[in-house]
Amino acid sequence: MWVFGYGSLMWNPGFAFEQARRARIFGHHRALCVYSVVHRGTRERPGLVFGLDRGGTTEGMAFFVAPADAREVLAYLQAREQVTGVYRQKRVHLELLGTGAEGPCHVHAIAFVVDPTHRQYAGRLPLDVQHAIVSASVGGSGANTDYVLATARHLAECGVRDRSLERLVARLASSPRGLAVRRGDDGGGGSWAHRMLRLSTPSWARPRPLRGLAEIKANYRRRIERR
User: Fold this and answer.
1) Catalytic choice (81, 166, 215, 225)
2) What does pTM read for this prediction?
3) 178 CB contacts (<8 Å, ≥6 apart)?
């Protein structure tokens, strides 16, 4: 079984694999198009994480999982990626990239693509709005900024260009506002970042109290058991 990673799975897969290759997927592109209410944000202040959105092409990492491990790895990925149901598991076509004996070849793989009908789907957001959300959000897995920078760093190490992500990283690096918000000394609710967040946060996310990660995972497991 091959698994395609395009965000945190690239630099933090969390499962056993026998081979890792750069890979290209067709028909989908990497985008900060998912409101995160668990890992990199909360319901009161959603963050932004990557999804595979429709159209275009993108590069990431493909991991080969041994047949003996496939069932366990798939269960792990479903629990990790489908906590709120914003991602759909899909069988996709990949081009594995390489040179010499490991030259390009084509395989099918498991990938998690965004569901554009889900309420956590953010769509295409302006750079200013992305910057405001990312720089001000923290979730159960850490700061939204750290997630974005780690993904950008890994792509750069692999020689993969993502110009939209590079523009956001440049904006984060040039603005002290994001670091101030993360430290909690941004000057209160009237700050620039908070004003942007009030404009960009979806209405469904604002009024609801945050449920704990354990509760969300437990609800997910109950849904699976009922099937």
Assistant:
1) 81
2) 0.74
3) 131, 134, 135, 136, 145, 172, 193
